[in-house]
Amino acid sequence: MHDSAIALYNDGLPPVQPIRSAGDRTDESKVWLHHIEISDDEALVERYGVRIPVIVDGEGNELDCGFELERLSAWLRERGWLDEAALAELTALPDTTPPKGAHKRDGRRFLG
Asked: Where are the stretches annotated Disordered (predicted)?
């Protein structure tokens, strides 16, 4: 089993749970995401205050100033932590084919 760690520096966001790493969904490797509250430490506020949220890998490489999908995906992919199938599912366009027959939309039943 291979474990890796990412530190998330921010101010006031709720803690995040450990996440499975990318790659083969059947492997046992994990990426541990550690939430670090900066408001309790003057040195961390000085270092990260205007750049939060910031994620840092175990080697000290940082990604900061917002997590646009392309930047975050590339950063995770470089480390082998991006789950390509999950990303594809997340970014897939919704099915716009009109439903046939009876269907539900927003909790209401329609007959077609």
From this structure: 93-112
Task: Annotate 12-58 with DSSP letters as a single string.
Answer: SPPP---EE-SS-TTS--EEEEEEEE-TT-HHHHHHHTTT-SEEEET
Contact of 79 with 58, CB cutoff 8 Å: no
Q: Which helix (H) or strand (E) holds 62?
A: strand 62-63
Model pTM? 0.62
Q: How far apart are CA 96 and CA 59, in angstroms?
A: 44
Give the domain CATH number at 80: 3.40.30.10
User: Given this model, what pLDDT does residue 66 score?
Assistant: 75
Two tokens at 22?
């990318």
